Amino acid sequence: SYRDSQFDKVIHADVVSLATLRPLTWNGIPPPHRALAWKLLLGYVPTNASRRSHTLTRKRAEYREAIIQHYDIADQNTRTLQEQECLRQVLVDAPRTAPDIPLFRNDRIRRLLSRLLYVWAMRHPASSYVQGINDLATPLIVVFLADYYPLHTVLQGHVMNHVSDERLDDVEADVYGCLTNLLAGIQDHYTADQPGVQRMVMRVEELVRRIDVDLCKHLAAEGVQFLQFAFKWMNCLLLREFSLPCVVRLWDTYLSESNGFEDFHVYVCAALVCQFSASLQTMNFETLFAFLQELPTATWTDKEIEMLLSQAFVLGTLFGGSDAHLVQHG
Amino acid sequence: MSQASNSAPYDMQIKLLMIGDSGVGKTCLLLRYANDSFSPTFITTIGIDFKIKNVDVEGTRIKLQIWDTAGQERFRTITTSYFRGAQGILLVYDVTDRRSFESIRNWISQIQQHADVHVNKILVGNKCDMLDEKVVSTEEGQKLASEFGIPFFECSAKNDIHVESSFMHIAKAVKDRLKADGQGGPSAKTGLNLKPNQSGGKDKKCC
Question: Which segments constitute the Rab-GAP TBC domain (chain A) (predicted)?
């Protein structure tokens, strides 16, 4: 198609122009180009194609060093108590990450996940590992594996019968590098008291108050607070609400926006809750809580996600730049 | 569906809270009790979740509102905000993980700081089916429970051992306490949709 060929041209340029790439990715990235586009937009690989292979080799080697330094320690007693606790948590959580997707029930994938989460935690002591960060690694793992194998083979886990250790090591290093860059933009979501998450929840609430005051009044009257349901939406970036392919589509747009995982995500969450406004306003506390805890969005497809993105875009146009100002005075 | 059971008539509503270290099996216990289901790989709880279960305790129809919390330290600010208003707390550890048992003292002090003074408590050692990996003995569990003067159960969410009796035990204890205090009639039910960081008394008046 025209869009594919346009993408081809932009992404295979000698020097990729991110300013040209971003608007193209807003409407979804063609699967064959997705892995490279994400790596470019997350600043993991250089825009200059001639430097890319060398950079990748260096970054992957650095990550391998980090594993030796932090993870492959024979004598566990050399770890501090905090390090032991962090390792315990990571090892407990790896099997509890996306267990509904066959790929994530694979032992090699669980080991990959444990290692990269632990190494990331050691390199980021201000937040260390927080539950939910494991969820954020899953779209990256799937997209980078799907660069080599068909998506359904990846999700079904059959890919693990084919992928070599060397290739899996490269995927792990790339996921680590991209996750690091993604988290750098939302660092205070996972530091003590999670101020970033609290701030985002306040922004969503303020937005909904302006868009749909009746819904806000109903939630307040029933005693439902935004923090009770939107906390998870911020902490796991809606990974718990949508299927993984839908999250991948969502992230195409987040990566296209300049601060998608922070600013645009707020509009998406506001659009999401307002979408169910009519039914929510008929519910009492318990039904509301149960509904918001488990939205009927697990069966959504790209079509519904794209509707949601359009609504969020409209909200961003209407309220962009002004809601942050309101929160400061609220 | 939970909606159907939500509308069942009841004489009393009780709010229970489950706390304990990450990975001890709080969510698995709750799902075993509320849904009679078990999955060895359940997803981690983020923030807070809840389930409803209607039970009959000695002729009193009770609606249990059971709150399940995330165990990880980083979520402490959000989870402790739900302590106030809880009428019964299940303190859960994993009998195959000594650290989770040692954390119980810390959880007790969290209760003292954040929960109502008269809240009923129960100590639950989960995963008692894993005999080969058990490192916290029944005696140790019993001793700690006695020290705090609270009931003790060893459970298995996986094999459905003592799960129902633990929940029923604390439900009965709360019911008896509320009845003795002259609360718990049908009129009290509107006061129990507790919000975080608000005292029970204040909450009752707002409805």
Answer: 28-258
